[in-house]
């Protein structure tokens, strides 16, 4: 008996979301992967766009709210849109390039706003460079986390399609 594509996609995403609450390396989170995956596999676009917001709101309720929430939340919505665009173009190569671009973009955008708004760095070129250099250790964890979660979500879903548990021909 084949399972609903939406049910399987949501179940895989919930598993990834739970991992956000387990002990993990800094920035080693599933949210970018879930945003991309939801954009590709959820048939309801509004659900695909709002799911990352829900993940972040719920987890930030426990982790704590911060001033960069609009930037980070907006980024994940944009990345869900990237997933919607990628829907009919999914391949190992497109996922690798998209994941790398997402990791780099997240690093560049969020650290720019840290530099601009935190008051921790001087608002000049030297301060901007200092901010990015200080963030490099977090970037490596984010890059690794995005690679692991994108591979895991898309790989698990692909295997479920290949085994017939999820119909491959049905539109998501």
UniProtKB/TrEMBL annotation:
Ranges that cross the membrane: 71-88, 95-118, 138-160
Source domain of life: Bacteria
InterPro entries, per database record: DUF6580
Keywords linked to the UniProt accession: Membrane, Transmembrane, Transmembrane helix
Name by which UniProt lists this protein: Rod shape-determining protein MreD
């Amino acid at each position: 008996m084949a399972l609903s594509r939406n049910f399987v996609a949501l179940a895989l995403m919930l598993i990834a979301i739970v991992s956000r609450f387990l002990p993990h390396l800094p920035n080693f989170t599933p949210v970018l992967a879930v945003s991309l995956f939801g954009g590709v596999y959820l048939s309801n676009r509004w659900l695909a766009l709002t799911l990352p917001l829900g993940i972040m709101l719920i987890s930030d309720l426990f982790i704590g709210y911060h001033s960069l929430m609009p930037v980070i939340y907006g980024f994940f919505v944009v990345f869900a849109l990237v997933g919607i665009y990628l829907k009919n173009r999914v391949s190992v190569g497109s996922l690798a390039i998209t994941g790398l671009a997402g990791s780099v973009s997240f690093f560049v955008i969020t650290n720019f706003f840290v530099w601009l708004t935190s008051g921790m760095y001087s608002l000049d070129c030297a301060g901007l460079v200092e901010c990015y250099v200080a963030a490099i250790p977090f970037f490596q964890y984010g890059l690794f986390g995005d690679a692991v979660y994108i591979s895991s979500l898309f790989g698990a879903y692909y295997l479920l399609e290949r085994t017939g548990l999820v119909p491959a021909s049905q539109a998501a």
